[in-house]
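2024-03-11 09:14:02 DEBUG pipeline.ingest accepted 1 chain
2024-03-11 09:14:02 DEBUG pipeline.ingest length=312
2024-03-11 09:14:03 DEBUG pipeline.predict start
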Amino acid sequence: MPKLVSAFVALLCFALSGCTAEFGSSTIYVLIVGKSTQGKYWEAVQSGAKVQAESEHIKIRYVAPDSPDDVEGQLRLLREALNTRPSAIAFAPISPTSAVSMAKEATKAGIPFIAFDTQLEGVNPTVTVATNNNTAAAEAARHMCDLIGGGGSVATVSDALGHHTEIDRYIGFRDGLREDCPKVVLLDPITLDGDEDAGLAAFQSSLKKQKPAGVLFTSADAAGKILADWKEGEENPVLIGFDSGAEQIKAIRSGVMAGAIAQNPTGMGAQVVTSALRLIENKPLPRLVDTGFFWYDKENIDKPAIQAVIAE
């Protein structure tokens, strides 16, 4: 008889989706809401999370829209995640400002809420698991300094300089140049978001009038827009970027770009699980859990470690 009662309670709990019991035993359940189900990057995030969850003996579930541009679809998945009341939620916002109310709702309900991959804007989650973009951009500055010989001017091109990710990359690059290349002049940032034609025109004007020795793209989108119509000349600047994408990978292989900084999605997935578990156990964590990065160029682009973290 006790066995029947136990089975009934377990089934009732599962049906109501309001607790984390699984077949009558207490189980930690972390729900991870990513940006996409497609692509090598997000496959690597899932792989890292799965391996870490197995080692920690906890249950995870990864959900995401098919497209990394589907903000509404991702928000529906986050709403469903809140309704199931998991032990913790990890959320990679497609739009940095769209999920603020639900993040606050999760915190009010006592559900540990982690942002990962991209910072949320307008709310401070307990922890963000992501690349330290300031540190990564400082590394980009060191490479730029070496490549241009420590002098001249450098331009930056951003797709959306109003977002934390690209702001942090710009600031980290600026500070890195000040530290390693004090003679280099950093030109005013060029932003493509909003009026893309005006941004492209400003970039072309900068190339002709200011003749920068180097250019940093602070996102794959910015690089893709510039490289789509890139024409090689006698005095091309040194180009470096962030993340990957078809245009950047092609440009690095051909020598048009010197290299780029790639994030570490496998490590990110693992750190999401570890950080969620620490929050559930009320253990301290820093505001930002740094997941690291890689520099890649023509020499190492085909190595397994780099192929695992870049995607066209």
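2024-03-11 09:14:41 DEBUG pipeline.report The CA atoms of residues 281 and 295 lie 35 Å apart.
2024-03-11 09:14:41 DEBUG pipeline.predict end
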